[in-house]
Specification:
Helices cover 2% and strands 38% of the residues. The chain has 435 residues and is mainly β. The chain starts with 11 loop residues before the first helix and ends with a strand.
């Protein structure tokens, strides 16, 4: 896998050539014996760009957080000017009232994390990387430090609003889950009892969805599961068993201990619709009987085989249905995916967590029965990351770079459910829509 960055250069000569091509120059473009009064065929009209979703969104540009709010042009929220090589950003998470963004950042000394940049560490799994959790006010760019040693890889920060309309910020820390009210009555993080060995989280209403490692054996390996807990009643329920995994490392003297390198922790992607009724997830292996098998007939078409196993639960059903079947197999090191269910629960998007050397997806599938996956790959474009859905479920955005050698500049590409895509922001990464 190659790391790509971006720089776009347009030569003055090329601009001049384009301008020249658009002008009527006597004697050019005419064959011998052709009257100068002859009219060339009119060029075809330019293809109109699709209408992009509207709404608030935030992204990273030149080492700072930028945001578009209320329909105004995007502007810088922070003035950090962090270098691309010295900073690692976690996802930007909008507060319910769109006044704050929460994010995890590793950029010593401003935002320490694990592993430290000096001295250099070796054999560290990406899942072990941590940073400092901040909130930033969109009105004035004020930064507030919330906690340290919060994981960077995946979804480890969420917001929810309680019955009193108070905003709570929830985050994972060394396998536990804590919550705080930025600017409210509880400004010191408090642990949520009973949650251990937790990986990713997502809040829907007052329900916290989370992946966890359970039934750990003597060799340190357990079973990854997807759960949901009601934060008001503390009632917990199992949604799905995902596969074998190693629990996150524990804290040692303020930094994370190295896990057992023979059984590295492998996260399984999952996602939930805005109302929590549609859930998509990946498992390590195919389910024995995901749904009733169709009756065999002489003209029956064999089901497509797939190296990856994604399933969907919707409408209160307890019977998972397979989705994204028949994908092309990738090398094991490249096959890291991210899922995202549209806010309205009618679509699921799938993308690679990191770009590879050739276009691969993203993919889109409707949640209605009998729907097939669509490959939205664009020739010459490498798109990756967690699909960020617009609040209207019109489309989702990903970080994209040209599939070309050399240093490349990232941009945001938005993929619409109609099957077309268009640029959303240039020189930008990690766009997240406000819901």
């Amino acid at each position: 896998m190659n790391t790509r960055r971006l720089t776009v250069l347009i030569s003055t000569g090329l601009l001049a050539l384009v301008a020249l091509a658009g002008c009527a120059v006597p004697g050019l473009g005419q064959s011998a014996g052709t009257s100068s009064n002859s009219t060339a065929p009119a060029p075809p009209p330019p293809t109109a760009l699709p209408t992009l979703p509207s709404g608030d969104y935030a992204f990273i540009r030149n080492g700072d957080i930028w945001a578009r709010t209320g329909g105004a042009p995007p502007h810088a929220i922070t003035q950090l000017h962090l270098s691309a090589t010295g900073a690692t950003w976690g996802p930007l998470i909008w507060s319910p009232d769109h006044t704050l963004l929460a994010f995890v950042l590793r950029a010593p000394p401003l935002a320490p994390g694990y592993p430290p940049l000096v001295p250099a560490t070796t054999a560290v799994q990406p899942a072990q990387y941590t940073g400092s959790l901040f909130t930033v006010a969109l009105a004035d760019g004020k930064l507030s430090l919330i906690a340290g040693d919060v994981p960077l890889l995946g979804q480890h920060v969420a917001w929810y609003t309680d019955s009193a309309n108070a905003q709570h910020l929830v985050f994972t820390h060394a396998g536990t889950v804590a919550q705080v009210q930025p600017g409210g009555t509880t400004t010191t993080p408090e642990s949520i009892a009973g949650l251990q060995s937790v990986w990713e989280i997502a809040a829907r209403g007052t329900t916290l969805f989370y992946s966890t490692i359970q039934r750990i054996n003597s060799s340190g390996t357990g079973t990854a599961e997807l759960h949901a807990i009601d934060l008001t009643t503390q009632k917990d329920r199992l949604i799905a068993s995902l596969g074998a995994a190693t629990p996150p490392p524990s804290l040692c003297n303020g930094v994370l201990c190295l896990p057992d390198t023979t059984t590295p922790y492998v996260p399984y992607p999952w996602s939930v619709s805005s109302d929590g009724s549609v859930i998509a997830y990946q498992t390590a292996s195919a389910l024995a009987t995901p749904h009733p098998a169709p009756k065999a007939t002489a003209t029956a078409t064999p089901a497509p085989t797939t190296p990856y196993h994604f399933y969907l639960l919707s409408g209160g059903s307890t019977t998972p249905e397979p989705i994204f079947t028949g994908l092309t197999a990738l090398a094991a090191a490249e096959a890291n995916f991210r899922l995202a269910v549209a806010p309205n629960g009618q679509y699921v998007a799938l993308a690679l967590a990191q770009p590879i050397d050739a276009p691969y997806g993203p993919f889109l599938q409707a949640t209605t029965a009998g729907s097939a996956a669509q490959d939205l790959a664009t020739q010459g474009t490498l798109a990756s990351g967690t699909p960020a859905w617009s609040p209207t479920s019109q489309g989702f955005s990903l970080t994209a770079i040209p599939a070309a050698s050399g240093v490349q500049t990232p941009a945001i590409q938005t993929y619409l459910t109609s099957g077309v895509s268009a640029p959303q922001e240039q020189n930008a990464t990690a766009l997240v829509w406000g819901q």
